[in-house]
Amino acid sequence: MKKIMSPAAGIVSLGLMLTFSNAFGQGESRGSADTKTAAADSAKGSVDVKLTEYKIEMPASVSAGATTFKVTNTGKEAHGFEIEGNGIEKALKPRLKKGESGSLQVDLKPGTYEVYCPVLGHKRRGMSLNLTVK
Asked: Is the pTM of this model over 0.85?
């Protein structure tokens, strides 16, 4: 004699199958998609930069080529962004007030660059770093 599954039991079974499918299959794919997106942004030459009081948060190395620095001031004071090295000296203008953002485009060649905040006294207080371009 055949037993027929009730609609409610079928829905519960389907829900469990989808839950386990997401946990063991699609969850990993989703992470891979995020990685691909990050790699695509990096390949496009886009670098996110956060400025706070006496700190610059950004990668320590990037690929050579046309690069757009997307700079956001997450601090309380006005900050700036400047890059120097290999015959390049470019600064983001105007300086950024609290919460403001701006972009600076630079064609980077392999080598070492200094990135810093040009506001008087900020570089000396720690707002600088060496950037390696490969």
From this structure: no
The distance in angstroms from the start CA to the end CA of the chain is 72
Residues 6+ apart with CB under 8 A from 101: 70, 71, 72, 73
Sheet holding 65-73, edge to edge: 55-57, 46-52, 65-73, 101-108
Sign, Cα dihedral of 95, 101, 103, 109: positive
Q: Which residues does residue 51 pair with via DSSP β-bridges, in sequence order? A: 56, 73
CA–CA distance, 81 with 48 (Å, rounded to integer): 12
C-alpha dihedral sign at 62, 94, 52, 40: negative
- Residues comprising the chain, all counted: 134
50 with 74: CB under 8 angstroms? yes
Task: Summarize pLDDT for 43-67 with one digit per residue, the tens.
Answer: 468 999 999 999 999 999 999 999 9
Closest CA to 119 of 103, 88, 98, 134: 98
